[in-house]
Write a structure and sequence with these properties.
Layout lengths: L26 H12 L7 H15 L4 E6 L10 H22 L3 E6 L12 E4 L2 E4 L21 H22 L5 H14 L1 H4 L2 H16 L15 E6 L3 H4 L3 E3 L6 E3 L4 E4 L9 H8 L4 E5 L5 H11 L8 E5 L6 H15 L4 E4 L6 E3 L5 E3 L1 H18 L5 E5 L34 H16 L1
The structure holds erythose-4-phosphate, phosphoenolpyruvate (PEP) and manganese (II) ion.
Erythose-4-phosphate (E4P) binds next to loops.
Enzyme class: transferase
Organism: Gaiella occulta
Cofactor: Mn(2+); Co(2+); Cd(2+)
């Protein structure tokens, strides 16, 4: 696994500059929160992280796909089971479609149970004409448009831990308790196909999935009894941004003696905090989870190879996922040199496409949005780049919700600009709604088959 420097410890990042950390007003209160978290149970276990590592290793080697998706940022207000269930439902539906389209297993990872902290482009934002500290997520402060409510409060880190624990508990119950049954998931997909003009386009593909299930049954496979058809693994992930949350939840595995970040199965380093000599790269070089790094349009081949060497020196397939977010217009030009350089380094990685973060714009009235068509165009460009270089397009990383929100424009049942304010609920970036997410999954399945 990652060669842990002799000088590495869960706290060694403290000697280095850490970008995008909140200006906590009270260092003693923050230290007390760290101390409390150190005494709390881990949210995930090392053995689970190793199982995910194995799954991602299959993706790195071209034998599986990665579907990583969820909110831009989770909300402390979302405590009811319904939005979590709906999010999981759409993830399972997308995964069924992709599994069939690619004829490959899909490794399912939610941006969930800990995706609470945000890096921001600017320290302040204008809300209703008033300049306020930018919203950085509910583990930092409230989203209320009020200067006092935006003061970082470390007590919220503890609240984030409890909410992550309760979300994870629900996910474990749903994924192991029958909700993920493939026949059920296929029924939902048929409902999507039958109930909307967006879905009708995919009738043939959905019928083929139905026939494949009927074929399996005819061959004697009892769909209801076969465990792999009604129990699934959905792993958790978030951006490992708040190192004061990650450090105390980092624990030494009793079996191997290796350190694991036990706040989630997989964590990623954001585009804004991936400096080679920065605190985040230092911290993640020493934990043994599968990790990701976002790569924006400014990433150079040398930088990317250096990140691979630093974060995956033992060259373990599945350890490192590179999440490219280049923009629909530039992905075909910017990605191939990176793909070639990483291949030449000999370091195995999963390449995933985040078609969301470089395709954001504000409408004339100032609403932050993305076009479904740009999202699809970036995914097509990502596949084309891999085809041109001969590398494996490992998967997609998306911002989605199971709710019928109106945050991204377009999709087959188009959300129009004048409809954005009908249900614009995200606390940070615009998410694909359930229909747009399924529409995307069917299109990606068509791409894979093509
Ligand atoms: O989710 C990602 C970032 O936090 C977000 O895209 C930054 O948005 P901003 O440019 O509005 O700060
Ligand atoms: C902050 C995010 O992305 P990036 O680091 O790529 O901007 C995100 O995934 O929400
Ligand atoms: Mn985002």
């Amino acid at each position: 696994m990652a060669v842990t420097e002799p000088t590495w410890s869960p706290a060694s990042w403290r000697a280095l500059p850490a970008g995008q950390q909140p200006a906590w007003p009270d260092a003693a209160a923050l230290a007390a929160v760290r101390e409390r978290l150190r005494g709390m149970p881990p949210l995930v276990f090392a053995g689970e992280a190793r199982k995910l590592l194995h799954g991602l290793g299959e993706v790195a080697e071209g034998r599986a796909l990665l579907l990583q998706a969820g909110d831009c940022v989770e909300s402390f207000r979302e405590v009811s089971p319904i939005p979590i269930r709906e999010k999981l439902k759409v993830l399972l539906q997308m995964s069924a479609v992709l599994t069939f389209g690619a004829s490959l297993p899909v490794v399912k990872v939610g941006r969930v149970a800990g995706q609470f902290a945000k890096p921001r482009s600017a320290d302040t934002e204008i809300v209703d004409g008033v300049e306020l500290p930018s919203f950085r997520g509910h583990t930092v402060h409230s989203d209320e448009a009020d200067a006092a409510a935006r003061v970082p409060d470390p007590e919220r880190i503890v609240q984030g831990y409890y909410q992550a624990a309760s979300t994870l508990n629900l996910l474990r119950a749903y994924t192991k308790g029958g909700f993920a049954d493939i026949t059920q998931v296929h029924t939902w997909n048929k409902e999507f196909v039958a109930s909307s003009s967006a879905g009708q386009r995919y009738e043939q593909l959905a019928d083929e999935i139905g026939r494949a299930l009927a074929f399996m049954q005819a061959c004697g496979i009892d769909l209801a009894a076969e465990r792999s058809l009604h129990e699934v693994d959905v792993w958790t992930s978030h951006e490992g941004l708040l190192l004061d949350y990650e450090e105390p939840l980092t624990r030494k595995d009793s079996l191997t003696g290796d350190w694991y970040a036990c706040s989630a199965h997989m964590l990623w380093i954001g585009e804004r905090t991936r400096e080679l000599d920065g605190a985040h790269v230092e911290f993640f070089s020493g934990v043994h989870n599968p990790i990701g790094v976002k790569l924006g349009p400014a990433a150079t081949a040398d930088e990317v190879v250096a990140l691979c060497e630093r974060l995956n020196p033992r060259r373990l397939p599945g350890r490192l996922t590179l999440i490219a977010r280049m923009g629909a217009d530039r992905v075909r030009e910017l990605l191939p040199p990176l793909l070639r350089a990483v291949r030449e380094s000999g370091i195995p990685v999963v390449w995933a496409c985040d078609p969301m973060h470089a395709n954001v714009f504000r409408t004339a009235s100032g609403v932050k949005t993305r076009r479904f068509d740009d999202v699809m165009r970036e995914i097509e460009g990502f596949f084309a780049a891999h085809r041109a270089v001969g590398t494996w397009p490992g998967g997609v990383h998306l911002e989605i919700t199971g709710e019928d929100v109106t945050e991204c424009l377009g999709g087959a049942e188009a959300v129009l600009e004048e409809q954005l304010d009908h249900r614009y609920e995200t606390l940070c970036d615009p998410r694909l709604n359930a229909r747009q997410s399924l529409d995307l999954a069917f299109r990606v399945a068509e791409l894979m088959r093509g």
